[in-house]
Amino acid sequence: MEQLVAVFRRFAKQEAKNNSPLYEYWCERIITNEQLLHLIMHIPETQPKPNLFFGSVQYLSAQKETPLKRIFENPYEVNLEESFQLLIGFCTQHSDELLHLFQTKSVQTNEVQRASYLYPIFSEIAEEAKLPLSLLEIGTSAGLLLNLDGYRYEIEQEPPISFGNENSPLTLFAKNYGTPITSVKSLNIVHRFGIDLNIIDLQDSDEYLWLKSLIWPEQIIRKENLAKAMVIHRQYSKLLLTGDFRNLIPPLFENHELQNSQIIIFHTHVANQFSATLKSELLVLLQQLSYIHSIYHIYNNMYDKDLHVDFIDAGITRTVKILENTDGHGKYFRWN
């Protein structure tokens, strides 16, 4: 129980603060409420408990005409203590349904905003490799980050810079607190692969609702971006594979069409759900595969929160770039 309290206290201070007043307040009250803590304890250890709990409540309330549904729709116009009492009542009334969601759903945010720092990284890699790109995302969710060349980007820095698809209906805004980016070239992506234990089908209204429910109530722009990204998603051909990456990645390296491209394997905010053994197995696998084809490995949450860019060739790993303290929702990054 003490560990669970610590998780929600940390979530309130480090995640929800300045991002979601509703979730911040709920976290502070949840840690004093044994009824809710006992309910939340049923969430599997592999899942981020605050995210799965709040996502499940938002998802379930969206399907019912309750006061809690209206709070999620207008989070800025609520009495926080009254909202918490409604949360207790909702969880008491729908505890069985919530317990079912805890066992059948997982945290699979597909935050397109992270493309704001991935795009210039991919551009640098393409320039260095002098080859088109083959993208492979682990923990791809619905695969929205595989379409990053379909978005337009406005980066606040000095001087400001824009890049990407000028005709895109979706413009992503981010701040660069690091070295100014001076040039970003367009991407030539020839293959797109996504792997996940549970691929989210955005054509399924229920799965789309789950993805939307994982977005915090106050973050209206994120929900609008998701809706726009879903339209763009239909325009890009990609192969989304369900299963364990340890089984699915090696056969892809047998595809001779990939030989004339630079392979990028990336995953953002996924590895925190990996065991220490799985993390080690991933690194060993990439080293082995690098004897077949060189790999750029882009990741965070393996051992720290920084975004790492590694180049792996013939079993040797070289650090190319590290972006420190990149925002989890892609609102800012520090270029170097």
Question: Could you please describe the fold and organization of this structure?
Answer:
With 336 residues, the chain is of the alpha/beta class. The protein folds into two domains: 2-104; 112-333, no CATH class. It has twelve helices and eleven strands. The strands form two sheets. A seven-stranded mixed sheet has the order 6-5-1-7-8-9-10. It has a four-stranded mixed sheet with strand order 3-2-4-11, covered by helices on one side. Helix 1 (2-16) runs antiparallel to helix 2, helix 2 crosses helix 6 and helix 4 packs across helix 9. The chain is globular, with a radius of gyration of 20 Å. The protein starts with a helix and ends with a strand. The model has no long low-confidence stretch (mean pLDDT 95).
Short description:
40% of the residues lie in helices and 18% in strands. It has 336 residues and is an alpha/beta fold.
Top keywords for this entry?
single chain; 336 residues; alpha/beta; 2 domains; 7-stranded mixed β-sheet; 18% strand; globular
